[in-house]
Amino acid sequence: MHDAAFGYGAEPILSALSLRLAPGSFHFLTGPSGAGKTTFLKLCYAELVATTGAVTIFGEDAARLDRDKIALTRQRIGVVHQDCEFLDHLPIRENIALPLTVAGRDSSAQDANLDELIAWVGLSARAQARPPELSGGERQRAALARAIIMDPDLILADEPTGNVDWEMSLRLLQLLCALNKMGKTVLIATHDMALIRAAKAQVQARVLRLAGGRVSAAGADL
Ligand SMILES: Nc1ncnc2c1ncn2[C@@H]1O[C@H](COP(=O)(O)OP(=O)(O)OP(=O)(O)O)[C@@H](O)[C@H]1O
């Protein structure tokens, strides 16, 4: 991001954003409620376009991406939304496979990979359950599996541990740390300072703080 700003109306929510998420890095994004964390993630996903300045995603100016390029770019980004929504009439296994279908890939040809991923997030026994039958922690793990089914380079997670207990938070964190160790860039928006402390024992995590529309960090990568 280079001197990027964004506002939903005339007032900027975010301004003077100049930072780089290096490939393979692990960042937390913190800040009070309403500071703009979700908005920041949406800029990283090209769901919103900077009002001024530039947001560059995988070397491309997000403001100049056409529809096809946006779709291709998003295939390289896995998003875990704050309120992980699913299609309630489909089993969780099919929900996790949905991005493959949307991208026109033959999900049946990737059955083994899909089952391996479902096992990796610990949901094999729940694969045929419908989303409303899952616990909060199971839903979060399903949302993570769906976010990484396309093998993205960048993972954006918005309060991924917001609705789960501490044990499940640690489990989700371990999955995200493992993905980072596989080379994926990870950005997690969270209020949870204990989670950040726990991550620092596992990966080289940097913390970005959003306040007053500006981002600051202790790390050298700003
Ligand atoms: N679609 C929208 N239209 C107008 N204003 C919005 C919209 N989405 C968010 N906002 C406003 O932008 C500001 C930042 O919202 P955002 O959701 O990015 O904050 P946040 O830091 O993620 O908050 P939280 O921690 O509560 O999830 C808030 O004042 C919010 O009301």
TrEMBL record:
Coiled coil: none
Keywords linked to the UniProt accession: ATP-binding, Cell cycle, Cell division, Nucleotide-binding
A GO CC annotation given for this chain: plasma membrane
SUPFAM superfamilies linked: P-loop containing nucleoside triphosphate hydrolases
Pfam families: ABC_tran (PF00005)
PROSITE patterns assigned to the protein according to its UniProt record, in alphabetical order: ABC_TRANSPORTER_1 (PS00211), ABC_TRANSPORTER_2 (PS50893)
A GO molecular-function descriptor: ATP binding
Swiss-Prot/TrEMBL GO biological process terms: cell division
Domain ABC transporter residues, every copy: 1-222
InterPro entries in the record: AAA+_ATPase, ABC_transporter-like_ATP-bd, ABC_transporter-like_CS, ABC_transpr_LolD-like, P-loop_NTPase
PANTHER family per the UniProt record, alphabetical: CELL DIVISION ATP-BINDING PROTEIN FTSE, IMPORT ATP-BINDING PROTEIN
Protein name per the record: Cell division transport system ATP-binding protein
Organism: Roseicyclus mahoneyensis
